[in-house]
Write a structure and sequence with these properties.
By secondary structure, the protein is α/β, with parallel strands linked by helices. It has helices spanning 16-23, 34-47, 62-71, 81-90, 105-113, 124-133, 164-176, 195-211, 236-251, 264-267, 299-302, and strands spanning 12-13, 29-32, 51-55, 75-78, 95-98, 118-121, 140-144, 180-184, 217-219, 257-260, 271-281, 285-288, 308-311, 322-325, 327-328, 342-345, 353-357, 377-381. The structure holds pyridoxal-5'-phosphate (PLP).
Length: 385
């Protein structure tokens, strides 16, 4: 049972407590609050000084894509034929930026056929592949560059992005061939420090000077933080303002149009992952019905989600004093453990539900069926609390 789209019953639960009382779910449930998703999208649309596109890979559920379109999102960052086709189907009027810098020739042909007009490259060989297959008319190619990592929870730069010198060369070639020259970067994910964007933007201006080319657009990537740590809300406005100021300072009157492609920053906080305690082994280790092979895959890389709530099967909140616990997932692999220890109420019991708030990004998509677990459902709620 998923979130049905125009077919069958459309149950919207009041909150996780209600669905726990009624359904007593034995398997993990991801819940989505569409009004919260819409509100977050609007914060980006109103605050970011340019075009807001959604990075589909973070959570491609059709309910999300449709909600974002209705909120006014007009573009999507797509990285595969599947994502291109998904957006073509669900958001046919939206822009699609094919920002995976490496593609097979058959993937390029698929994207040309689908009408993709915005590409990204970080190497001479990939640029040649695009030159050979992609019509030049009204077509943008963006050169992707990287810097040493600053402020990101996870390093994306180790896989993609050219040096500033090579990027200047690529930009010159792109413009010389008559394509629309643009630049892009991706500072990493869950970047709480605006400085991550500032140094990239200054380098982008430097690359344009080296190349002697005016970039049409500068895509500042994703990396916008979600709310992962209790009591510490990320300050998106501060990041938007820093991006605006850095662009004005670095480019002056010659500024490119800005684009961003947040994934996590848009989708994570509109979700909560409802898991159940299978056992409290000899009163110490807590075993959940979900773990690092399921909806909590990225925790070992980027740290615990500590916005937790524990509810009884009656949907009542446990209020015991916090006690640090080792939490294991359901599989037989000893890697299937949340990092370090996690504070749970002292009165936690087998059969209780542990709710991870802000778990909507890189969770449903990375859920595996390892050991036969991972049968996650996706439900709609009026509120995640
Ligand atoms: C993954 C990715 C994004 C989205 O990253 P978030 O941290 O989820 O915002 C944006 N752009 C590129 C190129 C990506 O690879």
């Amino acid at each position: 049972m998923g979130l049905t789209e125009g077919r069958g019953p459309k149950t919207v639960w009041k909150n996780p407590a209600e669905l726990i009382r009624v359904l007593a779910p034995e398997n993990p449930v991801m819940v989505l609050d569409r009004s919260r998703l819409r509100a977050t999208a609007q914060r980006f649309l109103q605050g970011f000084p340019g075009l807001v596109t959604y990075a589909v890979k973070s959570n491609p559920h059709p309910a999300i894509i449709r909600t974002l379109v209705s909120a006014g999102v007009q573009g999507f960052d797509v990285a595969s034929p599947f994502e291109i086709d998904l957006i073509s189907r669900l958001a046919p009027k939206a822009a699609r930026h094919y920002h995976n810098p490496v593609r097979s020739r058959s993937e390029i042909a698929h994207a040309v056929e689908a009408g993709i007009k915005s590409w990204s490259v970080d190497s001479r060989s990939e640029l040649q592949k695009i030159f050979e297959r992609v019509p030049v008319e009204n077509c943008e190619i963006s050169a992707r560059f990287k810097l040493p990592v600053l402020g990101a929870a996870y390093d994306f730069g180790s896989k993609f992005g050219a040096s500033p010198e090579l990027t200047a060369e690529l930009l010159r070639e792109i413009a010389g061939r008559g394509y629309i020259p643009s630049l892009n970067f991706h500072p990493g994910t869950q970047c709480v420090d605006p400085h991550a964007w500032e140094s990239y933007i200054a380098t982008a201006a430097e690359i344009c000077r080296m190349a002697g080319v005016k970039a049409r657009r500068l895509n500042v990537g994703g990396g916008f933080p979600s709310h992962r740590i209790g009591g510490i809300e990320p300050d998106l406005t501060k990041i938007f303002d820093a991006i605006e100021t850095a662009t004005a300072t670095a480019f002056g009157a010659d500024r490119p149009e800005l684009v961003c492609e947040p994934g996590r920053g848009i989708c994570a906080d509109a979700h909560a992952l409802v898991t159940r305690i299978k056992a409290v082994r000899d009163d110490t280790h807590v075993f959940l019905n979900d773990g690092v092979y399921g909806g909590l895959t990225e925790l070992p890389q980027i740290g615990n989600l500590d916005r937790l709530q524990v509810l009884t099967p009656e949907g009542v909140r446990r209020g015991g004093a916090p006690v640090p616990r080792v939490i294991f997932g359901p599989t037989c692999d000893s890697l299937d453990r949340l990092p370090g220890e996690v504070n749970l109420p002292a009165d936690v019991q087998e059969g209780d539900y542990v709710i991870f708030h802000g778990a909507g990004a890189y969770s449903t998509v990375t859920n595996t069926r390892f050991n036969g677990f991972g049968q996650m459902t996706y439900l709609s709620v009026q509120s995640v609390f």
